[in-house]
Design brief:
Layout (H helix, E strand, L loop, with lengths): L2 E2 L1 H8 L3 H9 L7 E4 L2 E5 H17 L1
Antiparallel strand pairs: 1-3, 2-3
Organism: Aliiruegeria lutimaris
Protein name: Transcriptional regulator, AlpA family
InterPro entries: AlpA
């Protein structure tokens, strides 16, 4: 299992950190993992699965 940093997630999904936070709050993006008092990350496979869902929706239309 690999944990992605905020920067890595931002580069992967091309959203700002603020937009990622809004999506998380709305339940539309994988939840972050608290790694320490000043550190968070995301499970890489969950983010990749989220991206794949977007690709699958595109292919259906």
């Amino acid at each position: 299992m690999r944990i992605l940093s905020k920067r890595q997630v931002k580069e992967l999904v091309l959203y700002s950190p603020q937009h990622i936070a809004r999506l998380e709050k709305a339940g539309k993006f994988p939840q972050r993992v608290i790694l320490g008092p000043n550190r968070v990350g995301w499970v890489e496979q969950e983010v990749l699965d989220w991206l794949q869902e977007r690709l699958d929706c595109r292919e259906k239309t």
